[in-house]
Amino acid sequence: MMKRLLVIFFILIILGILPITAFAQQQSESNVKRTRVGNPATTGEGLLGVGLVIKDAYDACSSGDTHEPPASLSCLQTQLSQSGLPQAQIDAFSSNYSTRKVGSPIGRGVSCIQCLGFVGLVVSTYTEADSLRYPNPKAMSGLGSFSSGGKTFQQLARGTTPEPGDIGVHGGGTDGHIVIVKESVGNVRFKALESNGNSDCRITDTRDILIDQYGYTFFREQ
Amino acid sequence: MDTPSSENNSVLETSTKVGFFKRFLPLILILFLLFLTFFAIFITRLLTNSPDQTADEPFATPTIIPLLNFSITNTFPADGDTNIYPGEISITFDTSVPMRSQRDYSLEVTPSLTNPPALNSFFPTQKISYGIVGNLEKNTTYTVTVLNITGELVKQWSFTTSNETPESSSRQAKIEQDLAIKNYYPLFYDLPYETNQFKIDYTDRLTLEVDIKSGTKDAVSKMVDDWIISKGVDPASHTINYVEN
In Å, how far are B116, B197, B200, B210, B240 from B244, measured between CA atoms? Predict the structure, then answer.
C-alpha cells in the first residue's frame, strides 16, 4: 500500500514539475533584457517640456495618432489644460493646430500632422507665436538661425553633441525631416520627439537616430 | 454461495494479479516516464517555438508552380481616388491567394516615378505594400498595373494626386539612416556597450573607441574582438582606438 502511494506521489510530482519546466524555459527566454549604457541627459522644461506635454496629450486622446479623427482639438485642449500648460500657450496651440495638418501618407482621407507640423506646433506653443512656416525641413537646413516669439534658435557647428530641446533637421530626400532632441545616447545617436518617426503621422520618442557626417544639423535656443 | 474452495480460488486470483502487477511495475513506470519525457519535449517546443522545428531540417525542394490565376480584391489608393497626398505614400493591394515572392507578379506605375516603389511586405503574404518616398507630381493621374508571371493583366487602377505641397521626407531619412548603419555602423544597435573591463562606442564611421577600465590592453583587445565577432562583424572592418585611463 505504501509503495503504491509513493508511486502515485512520484507521478504527481513529475506531472507538476514538467509543465513548469517548460514554462520556465519560455519565461527565461522572454525575460532576457538588453542593458544599454550611456549618458542619457535629463528631460527638462522649455521647448522639450512643452513637446512632451503635447505628446502626452496626443497619447491620451488618440494613442499618438495625429489624424483627426481620432485626435480632436477639444480633447487635446482638455489634456493640455489638465497638464498645467499656461492658457496663453494653449491658445497658441489651438490657433496653429488646424493649419499644421497636411495630407495623409497612409490615405486615411483626413489630414494629419507630420514632422514639420509637429515641431512647428511645439515651437508655436512654446513661443506663443506662429512659427516655422517653411515649405519643408530641408529649407531649414541651410539657415544660420531662425526666430519665433522673440526667441532665437542658432544652428550649431557640425560635430556638436545635441542636447535635450535642440531641434534636429535632416536634409535628406526631397523635403527632409525634423525632430526635437530628447536625449543624447553615446557619441553617435540620440532619441527624439517626432512625428513620422516610428510610423507615419504618429508622435513617438523612442527611435534611435544616427548622427552621421551629413545627416542632421541642430539648432539650439540662445 | 461461495464455498471454501471458491474463496481459495478468489484469494489465489487476487494474489496472482498482485504478483503480475508487481512483476511489471518497473516496466510500466519506465514506459510512463518515457511518455512523460516525450510529452514534456513536445510541450517545450510548442511553447518556445524552437527554431529547430523550422530551420536546418532537410526538405525536398518543392516544385514551383507559377501563380497564374489570382485576383486583387482591395487597393490603396482605390481606383478613381482623387486628392491623394503627393508626398510619401504607400501603394497597397490584397491578393486572392498568397504571393510567395516578387517573382509571382510585376507592378508598374505610370507616369514613371522619380523614386521607384520600395517593397515593404514580407512573403508569403496576401497584403502587399510598396512605399513611395515622395516626389509625386501634383494634380496628376497615376495608373498602377499588376501583371501575373506571364505578363497577363491582373488589375489596373488609377488615382489622382492633390494640389498639396509635401512637407516631409521622413521615410527617406529613415532609409538613408538604415543604409548608413548597414555600411558604416553595423554595431549601431548593440552600442554603447560596457563591461567591468571596458566601455565601447562609435566615434565615427567604422571607428570605435574603447575605454579600458581594467586589465591590460592586450587582454581587453582580445575581449573586444571576441565581442565584435559575437555580433557577426569582422573586427578588422573597424578602426579601434584604445584609451587607457
Answer: 49, 11, 12, 9, 13
Question: Which residues are CB-contacts of A49 (< 8 A; sequence separation ≥ 6)?
Answer: A43
The burial class, CB within 10 Å (0-12 / 13-18 / 19+), for B57 is: exposed
Q: pTM, whole model, 2 decimals?
A: 0.72
Q: Are B205 and A213 in contact (CB under 8 A)?
A: yes
What's the ipTM?
0.75
Å between A99 CA and nearest CA of chain B: 13
Amino acid at position B108, single letter? E
CA B89 to chain A, closest CA, distance in angstroms equals 4
Question: Can you tell me the distance from the alpha carbon of B170 to that of B177, in angstroms, rounded to the nearest whole number?
Answer: 11
Q: How far is CA B147 from the centre of its chain?
A: 27
Report the alpha-carbon distance of residue A104 to residue A72 in Å, rounded.
Answer: 16
Instruction: Verify whether the Cβ–Cβ distance B181 to A137 is below 8 Å.
Output: no
Name the amino acid, one letter, at A104: S
Nearest in space to A170 (alpha carbons), one of A205, A199, A203, A212: A212
Of A1, A203, A43, nearest to A118 by C-alpha is A203
Q: Is the pLDDT of residue B164 over 50?
A: yes
